[in-house]
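Person: I have long wanted to understand how a fold can be written as tokens. Underneath my words sits a plain record pairing an amino acid chain with its backbone structure tokens. Those tokens are not coordinates but codes from a learned vocabulary of shapes. I should like you to check that the lines agree and flag anything odd. The protein I mean follows directly.
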Amino acid sequence: MRFRYVANCIIATLATFFSAVLSAVEISGHGLLDFRLYTQSPSYAVQNDNTLNPSIMLQPEFRREWNSGSDRITFIPFGRVDSQDKNRTHFDIRELNWLHLGRNWDLRVGVGKIFWGATESRHLIDVINQVDLVENLNGQEKLGQPMVNLNYSTDYGNFSLFYLPYFRDRTFPARSGRLRFELPVDSKDPLFDGFDRWHPSFAGRWNHTFGLWDIGLSHFWGVGREPSLRFLDEGGVLPNQNTSVLTPFYELIHQTSIDIQGAVDNWLWKLEALTRSGQGENRFAAVVAGFEYTFYGVLNSGTDMGVMLEYLYDGRDRTAPPTPFNNDLFFGIRLNFNDAPDTQLVVGNTIDLETRASIFRLNASRRLQEKWKIEAESTLFLNVTANDFTRGQSKDILTGMRNDDYVQIRIIRFF
């Protein structure tokens, strides 16, 4: 009897404790259902040829604050189940960290997400988190990054230091998946240039506001997030879709960058520029620069229209990680209807000034109710030609996606 009484007391105490803890946890997040419709058959026989590709995603968010809000724990898991691409069915911890707020400083320890940048067409300098490429080709979705991040605020700007103890591999579509390169990428067996995933990386950043202008200076040293893609040719055999793969190769880099954004009347001026060494035979520079001009109350309506124009340059050589944005021009339009459902539309086209190949994107969104939202997305690959390996090196990194135009409807439920 005495043992049962003690056991019941312990159970009651634990139940009370966990009930108090859970009641203080803020729970939010969202889940969604994607319906992606491919408009053409795939380029290669090994790819899944189903026209409709449904998938589901869940991303809850848990937050717990104490010490009058000076301390906070954040946990954001992520999971997707895809009907066609086994690599797109994946789980990740986007954030799991403790944040402490001091008087003019804060410290974050754990898994987190950091964004650097200002431009619309390409997030050139955003280097802290690894790209989750199977989620979206535009590189906006990121994997959670283990880090220690110290931020210090002064009258002369904000200073940030990062210690990144572990490296995350980039995700790639499976051999049978869509939106992949001409040859599939073996993401399970990457190569490292004399180090491993536990090689630490470091970064520092200063940013400050001067009137209408926001300026940031950053430096990153460590494992480059972009891999070179190497075809391990054995015996002079030409690439074959059934057997050949590309292998990611990661190198140590130094990257120094600047980002500037200025709001002057109706103009929003944007710049991202970097210089990087460690990838390719020579140090190279890259830049994205442009503007967005907003027309308010178009045609005497409540709609605002922004016109965007950006130039993209990248001076890397062929031995560096590949990019389609070496000499490109981006033009886009952003419509904000300023209505109760928060209806928005963004269309943009990035065109290669040398090959005339282009990527056209459309994104539209509208709230249906307080907790429901619908999004439409489309990506088209225009004027992208097939490569011929028998005549030398592949010329266009987008050639494997030339038949992967798609339209996608996304239904989102917030909670």
